[in-house]
Automatic annotation (TrEMBL):
This is Selenocysteine-specific elongation factor. Its main location: cytoplasm. The keyword Protein biosynthesis applies. Residues 1-169 form the Tr-type G domain. PANTHER family: ELONGATION FACTOR TU-RELATED, GTP-BINDING PROTEIN 1. It comes from the Bacteria. InterPro entries: Beta-barrel_SelB, EF-Tu_GTPase, EFTu-like_2, Elong_fac_SelB-wing-hlx_typ-2, G_TR_CS, P-loop_NTPase, SelB_WHD4, T_Tr_GTP-bd_dom. Translation factor necessary for the incorporation of selenocysteine into proteins. It probably replaces EF-Tu for the insertion of selenocysteine directed by the UGA codon. SelB binds GTP and GDP. NCBIfam families: selB (TIGR00475).
Amino acid sequence: MIVGTAGHIDHGKTALVKALTGVDGDRLKEEKARGITIDLGFAYLPLGDDLTLGFIDVPGHERFVHTMVAGASGIDIALLVVAADDGVMPQTLEHLAILDLLHIGRGLIALTKADLATPERLAEVSTQIREATAGTMLEGADILPVSSITGLGIDALRERLTAEVRALDERAADGRFRLAIDRVFTLSGIGVVVTGTVLSGVVQVKDQVLLTPSGLPARVRSLHAQNRPVERGRAGDRCALNLAGDGIAKDAIHRGDMVVDPFLHAPTDRIDARLHLLTGEPKPVGQWFPARLHHGAAEVGARIVLLEGEQLLPGHTADVQLVLSRPIVAAALDRFVLRDVSAQRTIGGGQFLDLRAPSRQRRTAERAAQRAALAIADPREAFAALLEAPPFAWDLLSFARDRALSAGRLDDIVAALSPVVFDLGEQRIAINRARWQGFVTSLIEYLHTFHATNPDLQGVGREKLRLALLPKLPVAAFALALQQADFAGHVVRDGAFVRLASHSLQLSPEREVLWQTIAPLLGGEVRFRPPRVRDIAGELGRPEQGIRDLLKFAARLGLADEVAHDHFFLRATMHEMALIAADLAAHAAGGRFTAAQFRDRLDNGRKVAIQILEFFDRQGVTLNHGTLRKIQARYLDLFGPAPGVIALHGRESSPVGRPDFKSG
């Protein structure tokens, strides 16, 4: 358990910690020379029962408030220090505001230098303290007169702190590991050491971790907790980690970085948050107001974008978006503090809500509903609320990462809510069951309406159908949804189109005979360079328009595709060419291939090869980057049969099946 001191400069914080623990927190030569604390100091007090009380001694000077914020972010109990001779001073109030903004809910108040004050003065300063703490998290906290010189009240304060620690619930350690780095140094014969407070989870010797936002991998060679060598550290512990790995060096790690479970590495520079502006601010905050953001030990420039109204008044709270000058790593619901750009004062603070905030459509009703759900502290209730907010489909893994939830905790949420889940590997898209049933009904009704209006069309384009429905699923999740058992026997995929099983286009007997004559002309050895409409018409001695009409109808049936004007390729050939493009990409540097490579594989002309690739670009199968193209694998099935293909009127068609579908 960690106790953090707070208070004005020269009010005796370091002397008090030394009196309580016997350890001098001023560790830097410059601090000794100047007689003030510049950086965080640390001391430990063993309490027995394998319990150690850790103290973080923070600087009181206004120039080092950013260091105070770094220390306060990891504490369990606040020890506000006020000197009896000075009373409440400017940094007393600022430190108190910071403790309040960080929601440090447990604390005591030490009235130091009590040996220098009369009883009347002690009563006067106590009244000042009561007035200053009114309405804050420390309202009603006990005030204990002490003297670090004479020892007055030190034993009583130590006993009270011990009682507070024993009454404090242990921090939950079932989350994933995060440690906010506030010091980096090297030790001879040991190597790089980082220190900080474990914000969540557990770390053990030999664990593989990541330094973030840099993304450097590391291994925990050894660790100390509360200044003692241990095999594991847990949430709430003050830890020193000896890290090893390629690229691990003192100059590669910075104060404000974090050491995390590799799953949590997802830096962000745009965060939706709930911000409280301190009552004492001289003026409201407007759009794009500049500030300095303090989170953990990180300090970064930020712009405040208001998400409601045009200004935030002093003493009020509102949702905002914080646009950062560089990425940081955080967890949803972490607390933060904002100071002005000149570092003269604390202006407010609050709580992160959404670490993946959008840059557009920030003020919509849909976004407000999402933020309201994300503000709920209980993760199960929060995710249940998210599933009722647009777009009604959410990634379980992203939610778990941003809340630092363990795999077991995520499984508990799934078991409790029993959503429909589509497993995409790097994503697990969830929909609640009521929304899923509505999705099934809406999709079938949409197809009924479409077929009634367009009886001569093969079906609805898959992407058009996806965008028309709610929940709005990602492309890969929508493809899996169409293969779910609820659609079996009702809905059929025909390449890039989706139709009802009861809907079919058929060639008339006369057209069927003509198609059987045309199809061989488009296949075989000339399949990669088939004749155009006019050439087919000339060879068969038939009117050009009649051939064109038949081939366009064949395209609606999924038998062929019009790659360029009057240039049709068999659907099976399109599938073959898509696989050739995928094979080229798989064997090309960076997964990108040229039109010339594609042309050579098909053994046809450059013009035709370019037309084919441009057609694939329009369908999303390929992405064009100048002279190079890459494959979007999720669209490869647009021209190929899915598992379980059946023949329907001379063409391939796929009834919807159920691979990779998960429920509950």
